[in-house]
Amino acid sequence: MRPIAETVCRIRCTPWRTGLASTVRGLSQSSEPFNQDGVAHENRIARPDFSHVGHGATVAWVERFTVRVGQRLAVVEADDVDWIEADGDDAALHAGQQVYLLRETLYQLSLRLDPRKFLRIHRSAIVRIDRVAELEALPNRDYLLRLRDGTPLRASRTYVDKLQAALK
Q1: Helices in the chain by DSSP H: which ranges?
Q2: What digits encode the pLDDT tens for the residues 41-55?
Q3: What pLDDT, on a 0 to 100 scale, did the predictor assign at position 168?
Q4: Quick one: residue 96, left, alpha or beta (phi over 0 = left, psi -120 to 50 = alpha)?
Q5: DSSP label at 41?
Q6: pLDDT at 73 over 90
Q7: Using alpha carbons only, how large is the chain's radius of gyration in Å?
Q8: DSSP three-state, residue 78
Q9: Is this structure's pTM higher than 0.70?
């Protein structure tokens, strides 16, 4: 008997299902060979396919955030945000001297932000690209990033290549 996890991860396909599954928009099918039972030789994961987005479709990036300030709701423009840091499962928006707590994970927020303006620099930080003043290399291949207002942020080596490309 197969373990439950293995059963869930495997996709069972017969030849007629294979053709149907490849036509479903949003799922990319790999071209793995199937055995005689119609089971893939390896575990397969259905991955989203966004190749259709670039053809005349427009993506609406977030332009403002609605955040709770005490009993009130405040609107913070995305252009006013200097950088964003993770605060547990929430995100702290730093806009000038103000910090606003947004009830959304950093990952979810990064998907809604315009990648031409905002960039992930650490697993716990996103920065507005035009607010970066300088980069300083650290001995461990990380970088110390300084914003125009003097705020120091650490950019991990995982994200440095994308950061350097965006700053050029």
Answers
A1: 4-9, 15-23, 106-112, 157-167
A2: 444 444 455 555 555
A3: 87
A4: left
A5: S
A6: yes
A7: 22
A8: helix
A9: no
